[in-house]
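call fold(seq) -> tokens
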Amino acid sequence: MDLGLVEAAQRGDRDSFADLMRSVGDGLYALAYRILRDPHLAQDAFQETAIAAWRQLPNLRDPERFEAWIHRILVHACYAESRKRTRWTSNIRVIGVDEDPAHDREPSILDRDELERGFAQLSVDHRAVFVMHHYVGLSLVEIADRLGIPAGTARSRLHYASQALREALAQDAAPLTPKERLA
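ret:
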């Protein structure tokens, strides 16, 4: 890290701050993406970090600790983006009238992680049919109509999506062999 850039940016030099952000930007974005697992949220967190860093940079006591300082700002921006996303998704959550509140439990973190890996293996076409059928509750005929595809194609996509998810979940549940543990 170029200490001269940090000190110049602290004095209000915009070009130095831009150079500073270019030097750490890729690493900050990569960190935000790994935390948030969403490129748009990661971009938002990075932008919030850049704004906060520019505003708070004059208060940085030890310019040599710039990287640690900006990483801390980034992590807090990621937390804020994550909370925004949670609030937003909870506002549009569809709750059935006949659901039993005792069974209104969120899946565990491991279950969600397995499902995320399974969904990542599906094509967008398969994912769309699966989500429309299982989460939105549309029939295959309704899905076919909305997507402009034959009902047989919708049925086939649902079948292959379900099969791929079952295989992905079974693969995650299978114990590792001794060779796989060492790899």
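The chain has two domains: 3-91, 101-182.
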